[in-house]
Amino acid sequence: MWERIELVRGDITGQDTDAIVNAANHTLLGGGGVDGAIHKTAGPELIEECRTLGGCPTGEARITKGYHLRAKYVIHTVGPIWRGGGGGESRLLQSCYENSMRLVAEYGCRSVAFPSISTGSYGYPIKEAAPVAIGSVAHVLGVCPDIELVRFVLYSNEDYLLYRDLFEKMKKQTAPKRA
Ligand code: ADP
């Protein structure tokens, strides 16, 4: 499944994947960071649809249309706020990726782009978040052959390089050993 994972440095709002994932807050009524950028590009229709959803608990995901985005759908997921790691943050972050991927499969999307959930204003250290992100997605890809592409979109070069190094390491660790 590693060949179906792509890493790019860039902006999530311009992605041409069937779905993009939004790092939302539990109200689903807009915020800063990725969320602000997605709403700005999608247009006011997105917040109108989000208003009908009644929020979303941490670790879960909801889907809406993409409106003026290139992506057909936006999957809104609510990452955990980092409180030092002892509050079940990694399990919740894993749920974000898994529940988002479940919606990708359910809605017949072939491709999806993820930002780095929780590592901005929610303070989750990216070094700890990246293995959860890549590991969860790789696991779901292993059981969902119809999903052709998962693209991680990293906003800074530093985040991109960290993801890339980790991705190479994880890929090597799971490669079949040659006799
Ligand atoms: P959270 O509240 O879940 O921490 P943020 O939006 O504050 O979400 O940040 C999550 C990550 O997304 C950060 O690494 C931030 O640099 C990055 N980011 C911010 N804007 C964009 C964008 N337009 N496209 C992709 N990533 C972005």
List keywords for this structure.
179 residues; alpha/beta; Leucine Aminopeptidase, subunit E, domain 1; six-stranded mixed β-sheet; globular; binds adenosine-5'-diphosphate
Question: How is this structure best described in words?
Answer:
It is a single chain. The protein has one domain (2-174): Leucine Aminopeptidase, subunit E, domain 1 (3-Layer(aba) Sandwich), CATH 3.40.220. Helix 4 (126-143) crosses helix 5 (157-174). The protein is built from 5 helices and 6 strands; from the N terminus they run ββααββαβαβα. It is globular and about 60 Å long. It has 179 residues and is of the alpha/beta class. The two termini are 22 Å apart. A hairpin with a 7-residue loop joins strand 3 (61-65) and strand 4 (73-78). The chain binds adenosine-5'-diphosphate.
Give a brief outline of the structure.
Helices cover 40% and strands 18% of the residues. It is an alpha/beta fold and 179 residues long.
